[in-house]
């Protein structure tokens, strides 16, 4: 079942007419949690507009370890670079929970008829590049606890639900995946989470985090 797109994501920026035209040239498909949606180095040229659920985008090093590049939610556009430049996919997309999305094969044809959407896409790609630059700075300037705090702030702001205890986040990532997202070992991430718990900033459970002090977590992230 489709849900409202996240603010700033591709689908959220389309007009009703542009979104209707996109749906007219696509088809709906579903994946279960853990299924691979797109594979790194695959030469397929279709794109996916996520309409419900969350995915991780990841890549693997020569040594076989997984590096999580991003977590995307409803409204996200995936696979656009391969559709535009014809090169193999640069990452693997995996469903973190049951997802649904719109598969579009002739995305370049759609863009040729919707010039404004092409400009939106250019801005989205620039935003991803800026985000990648910020993460490179984090890896060089922040310790593991700071990087973990930064990722938890991001999840809380994007997916958090305000409760009487604090901001509750249904964490879609395992500790191994969180480690891959922060560029640290699983042991270092466990230590960082323990440090944040000891400060009273968060509470953790199975695939969930409650942020008791979001502003304090932001300060630790900085």
TrEMBL record:
Coiled-coil stretches: none
GO annotation, cellular component aspect: cytosol
GO molecular function: DNA binding; DNA-binding transcription factor activity
Xref: PROSITE patterns: CNMP_BINDING_3 (PS50042), HTH_CRP_2 (PS51063)
Domain Cyclic nucleotide-binding: 10-95
Keywords recorded for this protein, A-Z: DNA-binding, Transcription, Transcription regulation
Keyword Transcription: yes
Domain HTH crp-type: 142-215
Source superkingdom: Bacteria
PANTHER family referenced in this protein's UniProt entry, alphabetically: CRP FAMILY TRANSCRIPTIONAL REGULATORY PROTEIN, HTH-TYPE TRANSCRIPTIONAL REGULATOR ARCR
Record protein name field: Crp/Fnr family transcriptional regulator
Organism per entry: Microbispora oryzae
Lineage: Bacteria, Bacillati, Actinomycetota, Actinomycetes, Streptosporangiales
